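Note to self: user wants both folds in one dump. Writing first protein now.
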Amino acid sequence: MAYIDLQHLSAPEFKRLCGVSRKTFTEMVEVLRSNLERQGQRGGQNKLSVEDQLLVTLEYWRVLST
């Protein structure tokens, strides 16, 4: 599921799906953004946005723990 699809969810629904609150999610994106955005640099470019990459990681961690 893409991050754009989650923007309309209420706070409890967002936390139930992602495992973290929306505020924590945005703080995590701010920390990751400087390391994951590679526009204009050598090497491969990311196909997913930083938000989508974090969302995939959080979903993976939730599945891995069960």
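First done. Writing the second protein, which came from a different request thread.
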Amino acid sequence: MVCTTIRKGFECPFMTAKGCSYNGGICHETVEQCNGCNRSIELSSRWYCSACPDPSLKWKTGDCNCASHVTKATVSNAKINPLKASKRGNR
């Protein structure tokens, strides 16, 4: 349904006929770690996340999985079988 509280005009999965069903009944502002994210939207001179109603919960256990400005470093510590590596080197 379309939000009628803070993010007026935006689709919200928490809106019901009785109002916002999210914990507290309103969306929470973005946190400092959200600066630079493409999902941040400015509404009534405050910044909110378009992906989740409470961004602080997303950052609680580490990086937010919806953050567009965070890149994940890939670490390749795969164990290489020396027998197979020697066979590949002979080709």
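Dump finished. Worth passing along: Residues 37 and 67 are 6 Å apart (CA to CA).
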